[in-house]
Amino acid sequence: MGQSVSAAKLRxxxxxxxxxxxxxxxxALICPMQAEETEELERSNTDESSDFISDLPDECLAxxxxxxxxxxxxxxxxxxxxxxxxxxxSRHRLSLNAQSDLQPLIPSIFSRxxxxxxxALKCDRRSVSxxxxxLVLISEQCRNLTRLKLRACRDxxxxxxxxxxxxxxxxxxxxxxxxxxxxxxxxxxxxxxLALEELSVKRLRGITDGAAAExxxxxxxxxxxxxxxxxxxxxxxxxxxxxIGSKNLKSLKLFRCSGDWDKLFPLIVERVAEILHLVKTPxxxxxxxxxxxxxxxxxxxxxxxxxxxNRIGDQGLIAVAKSCTNLQELVLIGVNPTKLSLExxxxxxPNLERLALCGSDTVGDAExxxxxxxxxxxxxxxxKNCPVSDHGMEALASGCPNLVKVKVxxxxxVTSEGADWLRSTRGSLVVNLDINLDIGEHLxxxxxxxxxxxxxxxxPPMVGSQIGASSIASSSTGRSTSFKLLGLMxxxxxxxxxxxxxxxxxxxxxxxxxxxxMMPYIHELHEQTMVVPLLGxxxxxxxxxxHLLAKSVFNSSVTSSQQAIKTEKLVGWSAxxxxxxxxxxxxx
Length: 588
Prior knowledge:
Blueprint: H1 2-22, H2 32-49, H3 58-66, H4 70-76, H5 81-89, E1 93-97, H6 106-112, E2 118-122, H7 132-141, E3 147-151, H8 158-167, E4 173-177, H9 183-192, E5 198-202, E6 227-231, H10 240-245, E7 251-255, H11 265-268, E8 275-279, H12 286-295, E9 301-305, H13 314-323, E10 329-333, H14 339-348, E11 354-358, H15 365-374, E12 380-384, H16 390-398, E13 405-409, H17 416-425, E14 430-434, E15 480-483, E16 485-489, H18 492-506, H19 515-528, E17 530-534, H20 543-553, H21 560-578, E18 585-587
Parallel strand pairs: 1-2, 2-3, 3-4, 4-5, 5-6, 6-7, 7-8, 8-9, 9-10, 10-11, 11-12, 12-13, 13-14
Antiparallel strand pairs: 15-18, 16-17
Protein name: F-box domain-containing protein
InterPro entries: F-box-like_dom_sf, F-box_dom, FBXL15_LRR, Leu-rich_rpt, Leu-rich_rpt_Cys-con_subtyp, LRR_dom_sf
Pfam families: DUF7885 (PF25372), F-box (PF00646), LRR_6 (PF13516)
């Protein structure tokens, strides 16, 4: 408001000065006291009419704009032409809807925002994305680009990526997901962008599956590359030459990448200096983890999601304990360690500060007691969906002297009384307890502030609208009031038809139905409709909504509460089966 008033004064100042100059001046004699009063009055009038903001250097205004929210920056750009120019020149980050109709607007957009160094181009899956011509045009206008994010730009080809890479050789970070270009386009970037430090690739559809896949890398970018993240790739092993050739690699993250990684680990992990994530790589076994331990002596962070495949256990963890003595953070999800391996990890890794144990059937009170005695440096502990009871909490009361935070979720044996006792016994210890048990939950836990693994899950589009989701903060009350929800959107008639047939097949949805028996119907639903996440607690599918849904879909005599549970189960399993959402119950 103040800025608008100031600008208005700036526009009116010439008229005011003109009126001052046109005033007739008296030639009468004035005494000294009257002269002083007149000068003071003139100075006060001048101060009131001055526009101090317009006297600020452009660089100072740019710094102020950088501290504002995007909405406030837009408002400021409407104040005057000077502010419009400064706001555009000081904007370094830009996110654009990368639909095909963006192309004619590119020259005007980047003539205003000519200092952009970080660009995100995102297209929804129902629209036609920009093509090579648009990307080349952007690269010609943004030659100082250092970061580029591409999402669902399916019309980009290898030729377009080659032209882009030649124009933006200073690129430092590239993230691409659900794009259609292949190994040639990726190699074009690696051969031209010698400053590339971070590479993230998700669902790159153009990579050929099988032995005929073209190898990717290393290229000139390998010398500077520090972080590689590969997600949901059928043939992620084709990035092997790049990983092997990256001599300064510090972080390697593999998420849901199929293939026999055990054969590659002895070659590629030697370059990984600090961080390694192995998330849902089912072919990875104790042998592969042993190779990691042998080569990565300086490893600081290790995240393993074994997907409950029982291919990684004590043998691999003991190898880690023997070699990775500098380990500071360890996250085990769907892995079944015993007291033997946990004791060795605690004894051999004196710097272990963050530990997460999630979905482990073998982690009980004895294992927690071992951690309490041995892990002297431990500061944060997360236990989720493990057979731990209040006795394990009692062990933490006298152990782990540096412990500052404990997070316990979905552990049936831990009660609110046990958590309260631990809280009262160690007054400085933060205890977060969530004892609510949800069916079909996708495991995700973290002992670190930044989270265990990448949470940027791509959601299928909604027909007719877009829905944003955000996480709900949790407290230590042990009471869950909201969680991420699912709705059956679009194709409702098909859903009803399929579920009615399911009801007839399984006997009006009996209590004994299992996830395995439901999977054929879930896959059939997946072919015709979409399960999408909605936010806001279980307000999405309230009891009345569930009652109507159950009544119209199942047409059976069971109670609405039973139908609500069954509907929630079906939707949860469906989402979990296709990895679309992270079903997560959070505390209020």
